[in-house]
Amino acid sequence: MAVAAATEAVAVVVADSDPSPMVPFQTSNSSQGFLMQTRFAPILMFLFAALAINGVASAQQYELMFDNGSSWRGDDGDRVDVVFSERGVSQSMSGVIMKIDGRPGFQIVFVRGEIAGKQATKGIFAPDIESMKTSDGAGGGAVATRPAPTTKKPDPKTKTSSSPAVTTERADGTLESSKPGVFFMPWEGPVGIEARHDEIKSIIAEADKYGPGQIIVLQINSPGGLVIEGDKIHETLKDVKQRHRVIAWVKEAISAAAFTSLHCDEIYFMQVGAMGSAVMYAGQTAISGGELDAWLEKFSEVAEIGGRDPIIARCMVTRTAMASYDKDPETGKVTIYPDMRGEFDISDDKNVLTLNSDNAIDCGYADGIANTTDDLAVLLDLPEWHEVNDSGRRIHERWQRTVKQCRDRIPRLQAELQRNPERAITLLKELLGWYNRCYPVLVYEMGLPPDPDPIRRQIEEIRRQRGNNRN
Q: Rounded to two decimals, what is the model's pTM?
């Protein structure tokens, strides 16, 4: 279940100067069992067919099939009306398609529109969509103007330190900041693709330079994603909690992101925060039987690692679990029950639990509400908000930039292969480089084969054929 680690090294592309056109040739079936038909760069015809199926062709056109039998076809920038189910309640929203991520059955539709009177982007799981239609105002399928992409910037309310901090080296070789502060890192997007274990490891390594007892803040805003990423996150966070204080600052922590948050020593919600809905799927079907029992046990263990009652955590995994609680009006002590006997309901047997900021605070699952970094500094008992350095922001921005470059480049690379087959070796080598730089996007989002060896074999076959042509 290991995910290949992406590196920051830029792929070296070696140009092939041979201008001779390619000729048809035959190759054997690959170990994965797919037939590589022979014309120009045949393996790429297979690989990029997978891209088209998964909605990442150069035109960015998508086709979604919904559980009720309806469907939608359109592009990035289309204005749509969406009806979807959230926590068992049917809701509607109008807005512009920003992007659609994931494999069929696991896609997340990002729509930008008005939510609670404010413009915001909402990620909606395709299985939760009841209907989606292109708005009449967009001309019945015409592409609406897409908002220009924006660069995320630090919270404008972040208080800068009144005087600069000074970093010195201790006798043992560790570093020391003259001001108490945090190692802050945004952790955003689908888990395993944009929000990865690799970046968590990187910010931990930065904190380790300053010795034990540091505060690591993960600003979590994720609709969930790959459960396979959770195993690595689980071991890493269990280990780091022995030497550092780990904080989850939650805007959205769904599914695998909830799993990540529950490991942390403290959880603080934004007022609009949500955490839960950690149903695991095998294909398009929720797991059951022994697999579900094992996942419930793992989720319970993680809750206990974070010092939280496992009863509530189990309600995030399956609708068959229930939770309610009593709260002592004098001491505030919360007693949680695995049924509905308590005065206050948390989750019945009809819905999978997603906590909001209010009930998370009231039942003791969150440690406070912070809408700004200044608010969070107070809750962390810091005199002011101070980031020891900007390493966490740089780690986050570097990977987000790599993801964007990959999403932009691969469709163009496809088009170049179709237009210029004589450059196939150069372009195939570039594709191999992207496996090193951005493996999760290629494999988990775009649907390319996990093993790039067939591409290497194709390069050698092209060279052999060209050598034969020269002879």
A: 0.67
